[in-house]
Amino acid sequence: MAQPTFLSSLRSRLRTAPPPAPHHRLQPSRGYHVELGAREKALLEEDVALKRFKSYKNSVKQVSKIGNVLTLAVVLACSYEVVVATSTKLGKSL
After folding, report:
1. DSSP code string of 14-29
2. Which has the higher per-residue pLDDT, 9 or 61?
3. Is 55 strand, coil or helix?
4. What is the pTM (predicted TM-score) of this model?
5. Average pLDDT score, the chain
6. Number of Cβ within a 10 Å radius of residue 4
7. CA-CA distance, 68 to 79, in Å (whole number)?
8. How far apart are CA 73 and CA 62, in angstroms?
9. Cα end-to-end span (Å), the chain
10. CA–CA separation, 71 vs 65, rounded Å?
């Protein structure tokens, strides 16, 4: 069975390729501490124009809790109405 030529050339290239140089010897694992420049400091400052788009996690959590309580109240009220309607029908039929 004949092999495709690209496989044989790929195998030969892989056999003759030198091993890659380890990168950890060329660069230290931790970078040197460098103070931020004026541009970086300006980019990290809080922007007043973007403040209105900021997400407020506490208020979102509070609204979510209120929604959960209201949903529970509606489910309980519906369940109560079903029980009352069922009991009045049973009471009249007896």
Report:
1. HHHSPPPPPSTTTS-S
2. 61
3. coil
4. 0.40
5. 78
6. 8
7. 17
8. 17
9. 90
10. 10
